[in-house]
Amino acid sequence: MNYVEVMGGLGNQLFQYAFAKCIEEVTGNESALYTSFFDRLEDNPDIVKRDYSLQNFNFEYKEVKGALNVTKICREYEPFTVMQGDDEVFYSGFWQDKKFCDPLISWCRENLRLREENPDPDFGNVAREIEEGNSISLHVRRGDYLDEDNVRKYGDITLEYYKRAMDAIPGKDDNTTLYVFSDDIQYCKSFMDDIWQRKTVFMPMRRDYEDLYLLTRARHHIIANSTFSWWGAAVSNRDGITVAPANWFRNRDSRMLYLDNWVVI
Asked: Domain 121-264 falls in which CATH fold?
């Protein structure tokens, strides 16, 4: 059994799950998700509080916590090679690279569902409206991206980006609806008229896995430099356009993130 540490928000958790499935194929041994990170959050005020959310989807995996006996530890930014037969190895990292994701993306496009149906009938109605209409999802991430450390790490996604992204979406008409997902809806309302003057729905914040599921229902996607909206767009099974920001990071190459058919601005 090999172990992949799971940490961060839902987008990162999905990348880590995808990586775990990949190393199963390479090593020939099972992988378990190591989830002790989420039990330690209350003891560390410097870490953004996140929920472990993979269990809310119909994924199959093993989960472990606590002390482990491993033969070695492989960290993402240190040299190592995954080899056939590797066993009892602990992998730590975020693994934000499309090369790990194709099998999970393909599976999700056909099979992804919530493990438990949302009891709120409005959720189901909204999901159907997004799925059946000429819909565009637009994601604006604020929150922890305003923290000093993240400001230094991530590119600044400007109003100009969202304007150009909207221009890149074809087939917009009076029947097109823009669905805005954000952790700061009031901020979005302050500039959205500069981007789109037709029907706009500002989505209330639901639980992270519910919002991700709703994102996957849209036809077109304008994503932020966020793994959350990355996955919402990547696993959508509709024939739409995804627009992604070119300046994902300030000082790192981001080409490994963009799927081949995405429009990068």
From this structure: Rossmann fold (3.40.50)
